[in-house]
Design a protein that fits this description.
Layout: H1 6-20, E1 33-40, E2 51-56, E3 61-66, E4 72-78, E5 81-88, E6 94-102, E7 107-109, E8 112-113, E9 122-126, E10 139-144, H2 145-150, E11 167-168, E12 178-179, E13 188-191, E14 194-195, E15 214-222, E16 234-239, E17 247-255, H3 264-269, E18 276-288, E19 290-291, E20 295-296, E21 302-314
Parallel strand pairs: 1-7, 1-8, 6-9, 13-16
Antiparallel strand pairs: 1-4, 2-3, 2-5, 5-6, 10-15, 11-12, 13-14, 15-16, 17-18, 18-21, 19-20
Length: 317
């Protein structure tokens, strides 16, 4: 069983989570996403110099660009999250697309067809993004907060790799990243873009992030971009950044021999249940950086922090 001491857990949270929550300047290459597309008029002709704005609805931060001569636009280096896309041009109605969910390393294509009319009028489209990403050929799988909340993971989100085709268990029977027959030590593992591949016989050099701090878990088994550089597969953990809303979680998982039935042979010989107790506890918190009368970081600067401690007694865990 993976063990976290209070010191290691707090240091990991402080060093890994801070860069992911300070905005686009601190974001690394493969922990961001891209929204791209083509803007055309009713006849199918391109619309150049159209204003394109992607609003991070949780943080209130807007990312802007304009279309080129061919009507194409690209919004790179976007933090993972939910977005609202707004496109407007003189002589056309404003186009608004809501409910866009962007993951780490994902390229989301959103084409828009502008109708003639005053800019004051708008057309709002509320629909999910297409399941087939035509701008990417990567093989693998991605998991988000809904899977973390609903699947029996224990305290290690890496167990989700058992659901990815091409991923096998190691010789100990543990699914830790043996992709397409390779050794787990040649799989490139990153936490918020920081390499954490172990050089020994385990997948991690520092351990995976806390479940409560996970935003997305992406496994790429083949056909990934050249930006990743090396490794027979890519495993990327993205942690949650803070938002405009201050929120957090508290958790405590425990085991105690009092809750367990005694073994048949123990009962036969009159032996008591062996002492077996474990306590895993901690919490998370995230939100805007606000210093009263000095600085208001809402819509600008955010923080996220997590802590996990553990105590064990009795049988080796």
């Amino acid at each position: 069983m993976l063990r976290w001491s209070p010191t290691v857990a707090s240091l990991l949270a402080a060093s890994v989570l801070a860069p992911s929550s300070l905005g686009p300047i601190a974001l690394a290459q493969n922990i961001t996403g891209t929204i791209t597309g083509l803007v055309v008029d009713p006849s199918g002709a391109s619309v150049p110099q159209a204003s394109v704005t992607a609003l991070d609805t949780a943080r209130g931060i807007s990312y802007k660009t304009v279309t080129g001569d061919a009507g194409a636009y690209v919004l790179p280096l976007l933090p993972p999250g939910d977005y609202q896309l707004t496109i407007q041009a003189p002589g056309f109605r404003q186009f608004v697309r809501t409910g866009l969910s962007l993951g780490a390393g994902q390229t989301l294509r959103m084409d828009a067809r502008l109708d003639l009319g005053p800019v004051a009028e708008q057309i709002t489209v509320s629909a999910a993004a297409p399941l087939v990403m035509t701008d990417q050929s990567t093989l693998g799988a991605s998991f988000s907060t809904s899977e973390f909340d609903n699947l029996p993971l224990g305290r290690n989100v890496a167990g989700l790799m058992a659901l990815v085709p091409g991923t096998q268990a190691n010789k100990q029977g543990i699914v830790v990243g043996n992709i397409n027959g390779s050794r787990d030590t040649v799989v490139d593992v990153k936490i918020d873009g920081t390499p954490t591949t172990h050089t020994g016989n385990a997948l991690f050099s520092v351990g995976p992030p806390l479940n409560e701090l996970m935003e997305e878990f992406v496994v790429q088994t083949a056909s990934y971009d050249a930006q990743f550089g090396h490794g027979v597969g890519q495993v990327n953990f993205t942690t949650r950044g803070g938002t405009n809303r201050l929120k957090g979680t508290l958790f405590h998982y425990f085991e105690n021999e009092i809750l367990n039935a005694n073994g048949f042979m123990n009962n036969f010989y009159g032996y008591k249940r062996a002492v077996s107790r474990s306590n895993i506890y901690g919490g998370t918190i995230g939100g805007p950086v606000v210093l009263p009368k000095l600085y208001d970081g809402r819509n600008r600067t955010f923080f996220s922090f997590g802590y996990q401690g553990s105590k064990f007694r009795g049988l080796e865990k």
